[in-house]
Amino acid sequence: MTAQPKYIILLGPPASGKGTQAAIIRDTLALPHVASGDLFRYNLRNQTELGLKAKTYMDRGALVPDDLTIAMVLDRLAQPDCAKGALLDGFPRTIAQAEALGVALAEQGRGINRVINILVPDEVLIARITGRRLCRTCGEPYHLLFKQPQVAGVCDLDGGELYQRDDDNEDTARNRLQVYWNQTSPLVAYYRERGLLVDLDGNCPIDQVTQALVAALADL
Ligand code: AMP
Ligand code: ZN
């Protein structure tokens, strides 16, 4: 028997731990991790037209326009490995994106199974963002204080070089939080009204968040 496709959304402000948790649980869930920010960074590395367009927004901490973002993510969800569903991270970020996703899934007789709302206070987020480092090869996230690699500057998984994202400086971080509160936080009520939302305390150690997350998805 083939399992029903599952769509899980990780919602939460920048640096609330969406990417870190997704990387930990994607294998357990056997779902591909679809992160819109990673898709934009991939396009940028490959100097695609989409990547270059997106960069002007990303550098300011603004959202990339909905039409570009929606087309990119729906295209990713149409790839064969997403036939079983996806663990969505960083998408949707606006009501328009949520509506477009809902329509696209409904056309296939599918729908969102659960939305996890990760809660972390703003001051904690700023500290997390400015200390964040990523692997250039695999994108694995690290942190100068909270999640150090075994060897400074080197990825534990593949020896890749760790770097700081251009948009992980304090000014841009504050913009991104503002954008989150203005444009993305309305999704909390949107999904709560639809009975899909579960709140999760993201201001505790990584493994504790993972445990709570796994428990919040156990019945799916
Ligand atoms: P992230 O890696 O999720 O923090 O995303 C990095 C940047 O990519 C954001 O600050 C936005 O500029 C852009 N971005 C990622 N996901 C979206 C989205 N769903 N809608 C619009 N812009 C996005
Ligand atoms: Zn790596």
> How many strands, what sense, and barrel or not for the largest sheet?
5 strands, parallel
Q: Which parts are unreliable, with pLDDT below 50 for 5 consecutive residues or more? A: none
CATH architectural arrangement of the domain at 6-120 and 183-216: 3-Layer(aba) Sandwich
Bin the helical content: 40-55%
The overall average pLDDT, rounded, is 95
By CATH reckoning, the class of the domain at 6-120 and 183-216 would read: Alpha Beta
CATH fold type of the domain at 6-120 and 183-216: Rossmann fold
The spatial strand order of the largest sheet comes to: 2-3-1-4-8
Describe the model:
The chain is α/β, with parallel strands linked by helices and 220 residues long. It has a domain at 6-120 and 183-216: P-loop containing nucleotide triphosphate hydrolases (Rossmann fold, 3-Layer(aba) Sandwich). Helix content is 45%, strand content 15%. The protein contains 9 helices and 8 strands. It has helices spanning 18-29, 36-45, 49-58, 66-77, 95-106, 122-130, 170-184, 186-193, 206-217, and strands spanning 6-11, 33-35, 85-89, 114-119, 132-135, 141-143, 162-163, 197-201. The strands form 2 sheets. The chain has a 5-stranded parallel beta sheet, sandwiched between helices. Strands 6-5-7 form a 3-stranded antiparallel beta sheet. Strand 5 and strand 6 form a beta hairpin. Helix 1 (18-29) packs across helix 9, helix 2 crosses helix 3 (49-58) and helix 4 runs parallel beside helix 5 (95-106). The radius of gyration is 17 Å and the shape is globular. It starts with 5 loop residues before the first strand and ends with a helix. The mean pLDDT is 95.
